[in-house]
Amino acid sequence: MAEMDEKAEFGVVLTSGAAAGLAADVVLFPLDTLKTRLQSADGFWRAGGVRGMYAGLASLATGSMPSAAIFFCTYEGIKSVTSTGRTSGLQVVGGHMAAAMLAEVASCVVRVPCEVVKQRTQTLSNVSSWHVFQLTIKRQGVAGLFQGYTSTIMREVPFALLQYPMWELFKNAWASHQGGSTDPWQSAICAGVAGGVSAGVTTPLDVAKTRIMLAGVGTPLASSSLLYALKTVNAERGISGLFAGFIPRIALVSLGGAIFLGTYDKIKDVMVNYNCYTHLF
């Protein structure tokens, strides 16, 4: 995107990121509901079973576009800075890791409140996202919307440090093999593989984050650390509890990564190739 000015480049990344976030979250929402209920302290069936698989969609859709847009604007911006003048593979990977980490921290400011409302709605499928939002504000204030923010960061950062450098490495390897840049569908496959591996490794962190977000007001878990939550789950259910929702999480993140990053690259390519940005920015 070197031929564009900074405003147009920012606009392309912003638009592509927002569309990618919405596409991935809406398509894969039932799998996310399944994972959340499997990880709930109440157990799968008491948390809703297979009823209301789209409960909480409104809160997720509200946050997915701005959250994804913030992520990609931060990621691409920092990546361009850290990649300047870097020649060794290790330096480039380090730049991608730094960009992914900071992008996750920035996007979680929007994502976490929506995630809190979404997950509570998923386990109370007979109520709306708006009702859960009002109830959270009434009982806990604005701080309640950020319950689990630290644990989310501690889950997302290790995940991002694995997924995005792997995605970039897989794309570069594929491009080198075929002697040209990767197509969006190839980028999607790379993202799916990278996401699946990263999701499997970080499942215990996801379980702990879910339990903190779903914890009742005033309970030890509600204000606990990720380590405390991990110990609690391990004491209650052992290793199997720490990997609750393992298969749905891998499926969710693999498909989500493929849709998310594949859609991002596709929309960005279309906007650049057809000069769409000249009419929008």
Automatic annotation (TrEMBL):
Solcar repeats lie at residues 8-81, 91-173, 186-270. It is a multi-pass membrane protein. GO terms for cellular component: mitochondrial inner membrane. It comes from the Eukaryota. Its main location: mitochondrion. Coiled coil: none annotated. InterPro entries: MCP_dom_sf, MCP_transmembrane. The chain crosses the membrane at residues 12-31, 51-73, 242-264. Keywords: Membrane, Mitochondrion, Mitochondrion inner membrane, Repeat, Transmembrane, Transmembrane helix, Transport. This is Mitochondrial carrier protein.
